[in-house]
Write a structure and sequence with these properties.
The complex is a heterodimer of chains A (181) and B (462). By secondary structure, chain A is α+β, with helices and mostly antiparallel strands. Chain A has seven helices and six strands; from the N terminus they run ββααααβαβαβαβ. The longest helix of chain A is centred in the last third of the chain and has 21 residues. With 462 residues, chain B is mainly beta. Chain B is built from three helices and 30 strands. The chains are: A alpha+beta (181), B mainly beta (462).
């Protein structure tokens, strides 16, 4: 289990203790939406030792119950139609996997980020992102996740996951991302 | 109000104009003894009607102000240059190149040789002088002449500390603009905006402030925290904006004199889209909670919060009418983003936009006659204006992404930002400030050190 320390604001910050090479790659991919994870990925000397001994073994997946495990094995994001916050069947399936995983690790808390593509005005998109994050949160709560484990934050169009002014990029940027704290 | 200490570079407030002594010239007397009228519709008076659509820029000559000594000469040259640049950028004036000037010996107290100025087609002539005073101050005097009518139009004297040289030049520019157009000027103003750099997915955004001509530029935050959508208070002493300190998006107030920042209130959700009321006593903003965004006000003295809208929709981007009695905002309560107007207490909500597409960011003109907005239709963004009842829609500018119009205090010019497309490798996405006048013909980039967005034009400083 990851250890916790508390920031001055009282927000638990997860320390990542074990990182395989594979997980480190997955973590890099997740950095755009989880800057705190990368900031705390340095670890102590003891952690580094554990990391290299793991890495020298045969390739394995991320340690269960870690943010990387969640990103790689569960799926951290769902996507929305233009100017919409309705969950698709595919999104519901993803969130059901997320809820299953969260029940396995009941001490973990999550931050749900809502994002919009660039084709809206800034302030409206902030509200739209909040609406999307809320849609994700409410579905997870309906699946039995305690609402106190979930916070929401909207980034509007400020943090696209994919660069580009094209349909494919927009589709991937209209998203709700569940980030393990 | 909670106070949150945020480490920031200290901001030194810019020195304002030292006690300004303005001595209107009263009436000048020409050789023949005829008093030159300062007011009233003189025959064939030099005048630009800026309400009539496209106008040809008025050719005028602005002579570098004269001064005795190196320092006075330098200041005089700078003041002349600032005035020329202001008038040229307005699109209403075409300053004539110095090289064309025929009369080179024009003394401040003399009557110009109008023939010499008519020959180069200067409709108006501005000249002046700088007199250095003790204590780092100087006096600047100027005169504006109607060349073809051979009439003195206006002039004044200002005393300023040297650090306020640019402001003195802006104040004189405003006087010239007002005397010839009949409209208030907008040159003695500032613009607060968001300076941007870095890739779009890790964009660094900083609060920045500058004069309306881009001079006296200063960064107010350091870029570690995402900041958005700044707006001036009516006194220009404070800026309200959205910041993500501690990963909590909240409305903050930045005091320009103390460089202190305070979070505004303690709301159970994201507060954003803040604007001061015209009297400066309240901030109106959106609160997003549980998927619903409504409009609230907070009284800055009593901290009393009032809820203005109560719908299950997104109500945001509010804008007060100049008298504070009404609020325009955008809402998707009808299914898609449209513009609405309501009374300042939240009653009487009326939809005003009915065209094709989505409408956003309504901004009430300081004159009260128009509402500027962002419109999204056909995969393009537009900046437009309409009357406050929604009639008379006119689109002024369009692009892949243009957004966030903000009025100059005279209600004749808008500043907005324009963002280019980004390709899949992250190239492009250039984001710049532009100004455009109500005719839609005079679109200029307002040059900033980095990319720039979310501009807000200040009221006149004085």
């Amino acid at each position: 289990m990851p250890g916790f320390m508390f920031s001055p604001e009282g927000q638990p910050i997860m320390r990542i203790k074990f990182l395989s090479v594979f997980a480190a790659v997955a973590l890099l991919a997740a950095c755009e939406t989880a800057p705190d994870s990368s900031a705390s990925a340095g670890g102590s000397g003891a952690v580094t030792g554990a990391q290299s001994s793991t890495a020298s073994a045969a390739p394995v997946g991320p340690a269960p119950g870690t943010a990387e495990d969640f990103v790689v094995n569960v799926g951290d994001r769902v996507f929305f139609a233009f100017d919409k916050s309705d969950l698709t069947n595919e999104s519901r399936t993803t969130l059901e996997r997320q809820a299953f995983w969260m029940r396995k690790y009941p001490s973990l808390t999550m931050s749900i980020e809502g994002h919009a593509d660039e084709r809206g005005t800034r302030e409206y998109n902030l509200a739209l992102g909040e609406r999307r994050a809320t849609a994700v949160r409410d579905y997870l709560v309906s699946l039995g996740i305690d609402t106190s484990r979930l916070t929401t934050i909207s980034y509007g169009k400020e943090r696209p996951a994919v660069l580009g002014s094209n349909e494919e990029a927009w589709a991937q940027n209209r998203r709700g991302v569940t980030v393990v704290n | 109000m909670n106070t949150r200490a945020v480490p920031l570079p200290l901001v030194t407030p810019r020195p304002l104009l030292a006690p300004v002594s303005r001595r209107a010239f009263g009436r000048l007397t020409l050789g023949g003894g005829a008093a030159l009228g300062l007011v009233g519709p003189a025959l064939a008076e030099l005048r630009i009607d800026i309400t009539s659509g496209r106008v040809d820029p008025l050719p005028l000559a602005v002579v570098d102000f004269r001064g005795d000594g190196i320092e006075a000469t330098r200041i005089g040259r700078e003041v002349g240059g600032i005035i020329r640049a202001n008038l040229e950028r307005s699109g209403l004036f075409a300053p004539i190149d110095h090289a064309a000037f025929i009369q080179s010996d024009l003394q401040f107290d003399a009557i110009p040789r109008f023939d010499d100025w008519r020959k180069i087609n200067a409709q108006a002539l501005v000249h002046g002088r700088i007199i250095m005073l003790a204590g780092g101050q100087f006096r600047v005097e100027y005169r504006l002449w109607d060349v073809f009518a051979e009439q003195y139009m206006t002039g004044t004297a200002l005393t300023a500390i040297q650090e306020s040289m640019r402001r003195a030049a802006h104040i004189i520019s405003d006087m010239i603009y007002k005397r010839i157009t009949g409209e208030e000027g907008y040159f003695d103003t500032r613009i607060v905006y968001i300076s941007e750099r870095g890739p779009q997915n890790r964009r660094e955004k900083r609060l920045a402030i500058m004069d309306q001509d881009g001079a006296s530029h200063m960064f107010l935050t350091d870029g570690r925290t995402l900041v958005l959508t700044p707006r001036f208070s009516p006194t220009l002493q404070e800026i309200t904006y959205l910041a993500y300190y501690a990963k909590k998006p909240r409305v903050y107030i930045f005091n320009l004199e103390s460089a202190q920042q305070e979070v505004l209130g303690d709301f159970p959700g994201m507060t954003f889209a803040p604007r001061f009321s015209p009297d400066g006593n309240r901030v109106i903003m959106s609160l997003a909670r549980d998927g619903i965004t409504d409009l609230y006000t907070m009284d800055l003295r009593t901290h009393r919060v009032a809820r203005l809208t109560d719908s299950s929709s997104i109500d945001t981007s509010p804008s007060y009418s100049p008298d504070g009695s009404q609020v325009a905002f955008n809402s998707d309560r009808g299914g898609a983003q449209q513009l609405y107007v309501m009374n300042a207490d939240g009653s009487g909500v009326t939809r005003i936009s009915f065209g094709n597409g989505r409408y956003a960011t309504p901004v009430w003109s300081p004159r009260g006659d128009l509402i500027a907005f962002t419109k999204m239709t056909g995969g393009r963004f537009h900046i437009g204006v309409m009357r406050t009842d929604g009639s008379g829609e006119r689109l002024l500018s369009e692009g892949y992404l243009v957004e966030a119009p903000s009025w100059a205090p005279n209600g004749r010019v808008l500043v907005y930002f324009k963002q280019d497309r980004t390709d899949s490798s992250g190239r492009g996405g250039t984001t710049r400030l532009h100004t455009i006048d109500l005719t839609g013909y005079n679109d200029r980039e307002l040059v900033t050190p980095e990319d720039a967005s979310d501009p807000a034009w200040s009221p006149l400083i004085r």
